Amino acid sequence: MFHMPSFSHYTIPEVISALNAQCYAKLILGASFRDTLLIEHLCRAYARSGVQVIDMAADSQVLETVLRSFESIAEETGSREDFPALMISLDVDGDPHFRHIVLDEPACIDCGACVPVCPTEVFSLSVAEHVPTSSLHMVSSRCYGCNQCIPVCPTEALSLQPVAQPSSMLTTLLAYPAIQLVELHTEHLDLSALQEMLHVLGPGLKNKLLSLCWRPVSEEALLTEKQQEAQYLHTFDHWVKTYNDYGVWMVQIDGIPMGGAGYREVHAERVQTSQERLAWYAALSVATRYQWAAPSQALWQWLTLSGGVTPETALFYKASPQNTVLTVHGAGMGSIAKKLIQPALQADCSPTLKQHLYHKAISAIKPFLIS
Ligand code: SF4
Ligand code: SF4
């Protein structure tokens, strides 16, 4: 492992204050996103924007890249204070965020259909000299598993493979004090997988502020699956209250998983989707409380949103009536955050334009920070 440079990060009490004030803002790099160039740009653009947390893949190279970008910011500004707290994401039971694109080269006919649909420009068609046809080039480290390219491929040359997270590597990462938050992602609310993870990694999770991330199912499914969900949430809540230093946790509802860039500028739909998710959350909350707890008790302390989040999402939930069920305490921005600064990666992007894009990124965070 590498030498950890030291910075003054947002502390957990500061993160909790932001949650309580509905001003929690997180930059999501992506649970399987390992493109070091873009990670450096994202950190440069957003580390000084006011986000309290940067959420990254549980990967030592990614951690090294994030800290290297902090180091260069510190050299420029002369300050090592007020850097975001770091969060890593763990896969409990096969969440699709933990996938990477794989190309079956012989099956690819270089048609280019996948090129425009990828939000992070994984694919490009390159034309070699003296060759009449172009061929597909792929930078797979940029892939964050959104699945938008798979349906457009006419020859089924693309597939998504799970990203492995060996427990020995996770234990090493969890030992770093700079990693203060951990998000557990669940796809199937698989109780035995959760119990196994807590058994193996429990000691490392003890002093972290925990978030549980899952995607809403339809309301019809909710009616049949609520028992399973309630049991899962109750087990997690019991573990946190018994073994975790903070004894409270946040939930992150994944609205349109990895959907922000796919829907780009359709802000009205974003807001409507958030409303639907909140309605779903309210139903789940009622169901959960009915099953397991007195009406005045909530299992989780804070509700946060991700998946299709844009600055307009913040405007929407801050305008929502405050009550114990629907209060949204903050959000994580991933796809849109990447999209905003993507042009800075172009070879012909001038330093002035780069600065302009970084300022645009900072403006995008502002709605989340205003109470
Ligand atoms: S479209 Fe999505 S799944 Fe396909 S390569 Fe791009 S990021 Fe990965
Ligand atoms: S869509 Fe499929 S066949 Fe076409 S270039 Fe992409 S991977 Fe190759």
The biggest beta sheet reads: 8 strands, parallel, barrel
Trace the largest sheet across and list its strands: 1-2-3-8-9-10-11-12
Question: Strand fraction band?
Answer: 15-25%
- State the end-to-end distance: 40 Å
Task: Offer a few descriptive terms.
single chain; 371 residues; alpha/beta; eight-stranded parallel β-barrel; two-stranded antiparallel ribbon; globular; binds iron/sulfur cluster
Structure description:
This protein has 371 residues and is an alpha/beta fold. The chain contains 11 helices and 12 strands. It has helices spanning 12-20, 36-46, 60-77, 167-174, 191-205, 219-243, 260-263, 267-292, 311-319, 335-341, 351-369; strands at residues 24-28, 53-57, 85-91, 99-103, 123-127, 134-138, 158-162, 179-185, 209-214, 249-254, 302-306, 330-333. A hairpin with a 6-residue loop joins strand 5 and strand 6 (134-138). Residues 103, 108-114, 136, 152-155, 157-158 line the site of one iron/sulfur cluster (SF4).
Outline:
This protein is 41% helix and 18% strand. The protein is globular, with a radius of gyration of 21 Å. About 6% of the residues have low confidence.
Topology:
Elements: H1 12-20, E1 24-28, H2 36-46, E2 53-57, H3 60-77, E3 85-91, E4 99-103, E5 123-127, E6 134-138, E7 158-162, H4 167-174, E8 179-185, H5 191-205, E9 209-214, H6 219-243, E10 249-254, H7 260-263, H8 267-292, E11 302-306, H9 311-319, E12 330-333, H10 335-341, H11 351-369
Parallel strand pairs: 1-2, 1-12, 2-3, 3-8, 8-9, 9-10, 10-11, 11-12
Antiparallel strand pairs: 4-7, 5-6
Residues 101, 117-120, 122, 143-149 line the site of one iron/sulfur cluster (SF4).
